Amino acid sequence: MEAWGFASLWAAERLVIPWSIDTTYPYAEGGAFIVPPDRPFLESLTVLAFLAGCTTRIRLGVSVLVLPYRHPLHWAKVAATIDVLSEGRFTLGVGVGWMREEFDALNAPFAERGRVSDEQLELLRGALTQERATFDGRFYRFTDIAFLPKAYQRTRPAIWVGGEGVAAQKRTARYGDAWFPYFVRVTPVEVARRFSSVQRLAAQLGRDPAEITLNLNLPCEITEEPVQQEADRLRGTSEQIFEALHGFEKVGVQHLALQFMVPHFPERLAQIQRFAEEVLPRFGV
Prior knowledge:
Blueprint: E1 8-11, H1 44-54, E2 59-66, H2 72-85, E3 90-95, H3 100-105, H4 113-127, E4 133-136, E5 141-145, E6 158-161, H5 166-175, E7 178-179, H6 188-204, E8 213-222, E9 235-236, H7 238-250, E10 253-260, H8 265-278
Parallel strand pairs: 1-2, 2-3, 3-6, 6-7, 7-8, 8-9, 8-10
Antiparallel strand pairs: 4-5
Helix pairs in contact: 1-2, 5-6
């Protein structure tokens, strides 16, 4: 990825995959989770720590860390460590999760996952900015602790907030450096409309809306032959993919993380290489 000119490389988050999943997967048509339970799924932060030592330029991100699965001081320490080891190339994508069965297996609070996540981000804001941090919340508390390193530049890593709904938009407005939703079926115009809500909420909280960028995570499939285009889907030839991406660029999207949907590695790697050779140069990369 680094040699081919990509700006960032992302690791997905999944700790366990139950054999039986009744929770609807919101990011696939039909609602079924797309990764079988008998497939290996490496832990995201461990992968990124490894990649920090294998790369020199490309940014490394997690898309997204499910906050309630871990104690916040634990994952914050790991995130800060990766940022230091990569010399400031780490992006922390955060979310609240969706799979009830995985929450149950980890003894994590599914019903309160939003409130837990918000408290974790509030805690993080103090622990990664203050020399002596104290926090007294509903779920977490500590008194007069040091937390070092905070990050490579002694400020916290960039926080990109995942999620598509109103709660995620509010979370972004309060805590995020970027809104980073994963959309499966949405048009550029609809993305821009929803982001305007994020900006409005940020202004109401006293933040400068310009501090928050619009970034997306999208599925992508490159085909050999042209296909009928749908305004809310990245699928087609390299030329069609470029035109679709340009539509998101025109509404203010600054960064796109792409999930190439071919299920097997050799074919997926070929898709990524085609994108690098045929699409990236059209954007001046």
